[in-house]
Amino acid sequence: MFISFDRPLCAVGFAVVATTITLASPASAEPAPPYETLIEHLDRTPATLEAEALLDAAKARAQQAHALPNPSISLEAENAYGRSPFTGYGAAETTFSVSQPLELWGQRGARVGAARAEAEAAGLRRDQSRWAVAGRLALIYAEAEAASLQHELAIEALSLTQADANAVMALVEEGREAVLRGVQAESEVEAARAVADETQANRDAAFARLAAAAMLTEPVTSIGTSLLDRAPSPFAQDVRNPLAVQIAEAELDAAGQSVTVERLRARPDVTASLGVRRFQEYDSQALMFGISVSVPLLDRNKGAISAARAEQRAAEARLTGLKLEVQADRSAAQARLDASITRTRAADNGVASAEEAYRLARAGFDAGRISQLELRSIRAALIAARNTAVDARLARVRAEVELARLDGRAPF
């Protein structure tokens, strides 16, 4: 979990403080599960459940699109209970018929094709939602680890500052330093203590966000497996057809299918009927059959057709823009990832140099060859170098999360 910095000898004080904090923590404190364990349970996160439900709804609509229209059954009686010669029911004509709407012109096939296209787009959006959740979880996990590391570095910085202040106070008591130097040293200790308190609050907030995002039943108290120290491995990805472009293509296909559906709705509705007519007066019966056709004079569905075509044009424009935008975004994300890897390597080298400089400066201060101001400046450079190394690792995680989002996969 910790960045492999070589600690100076003065860090012994930090070990004492860290031990005190550990003893003061609850006995039930357990580290957060590893990132791999958390992404194995993506199916229970609200965003994934929502996307899965929307996919189920789209599949159900695709299944419903195969259904044939329901027939109609009618029973009619004519020439009954009127004036002579139609008094009573003796001269009645009773008709029982069944009517079935006929889906001609390819209407049913177009409806099924549109529903299938919507289901395919919903499936791709479900995948995109899963990878987005995985990326967000990786980022929150890394931010929690970074906040924990920054708190530990602040505690260590407080220990170093306190050790330096003790050395200054010893010189003040011996008369080798002015009282003002002691006051300055005590002020630096209080400032370092305030930073430690602030980083502790940030760490607790980051742990709370991680517990909420991962839907953990127990509070997070530490990070057991480091994500910041993990370097992203090269991932072979077909950048010609990223997931976002696939979704846009599926939405364009669905929009084209909708145009066909609306265009065929303007065709006449045809209904076939078949029945039996009973002639009560002659005690006889006969078949009856017919076809009814709607006449599209007043409503030709022009508005719906125009709306569907406009949505198709919008989908085409969105696809064209995405193809250019995603390629540019992926190139930029890859460049940021490469730069963050180089920055992390440089930051680690800077930490090693700063630690060696501080070790020499402390030895020189104890020997009286280096002033307090020089020691303070070198100590500040060491603290800044260590925090820079944490920031570089967090930037590397962010670059990997962005690249994974564009590629349509889980980070790392």
Secondary structure blueprint with pairings:
Layout: H1 12-24, H2 35-39, H3 46-65, E1 72-78, E2 93-102, H4 107-173, H5 179-213, H6 243-265, E3 270-279, E4 284-293, H7 302-366, H8 372-407
Antiparallel strand pairs: 1-2, 2-3, 3-4
Helix pairs in contact: 1-4, 3-4, 4-5, 4-6, 4-8, 6-7, 7-8
Pfam family, one: OEP
InterPro entries: MdtP/NodT-like, OMP_efflux
Family: Belongs to the outer membrane factor (OMF) (TC 1.B.17) family.
CA-based gyration radius: 38 Å
Mean pLDDT: 85
Beta strands, count: 4
Fraction of residues in β-strands:
5-15%
Characterize the overall form: rod-shaped
Largest sheet: 4 strands, antiparallel
Helix content: 55-70%
Describe the structure.
- Residues 1-29 form the signal peptide.
- The chain has 412 residues and is an alpha+beta fold.
- It is built from 8 helices and 4 strands.
- The chain has helices spanning 12-24, 35-39, 46-65, 107-173, 179-213, 243-265, 302-366, 372-407; strands at 72-78, 93-102, 270-279, 284-293.
- Strands 1-2-3-4 form a 4-stranded antiparallel beta sheet, with no helix packed on it.
- A hairpin with a 4-residue loop joins strand 3 and strand 4 (284-293).
- Mean pLDDT is 85; it is low at 1-28.
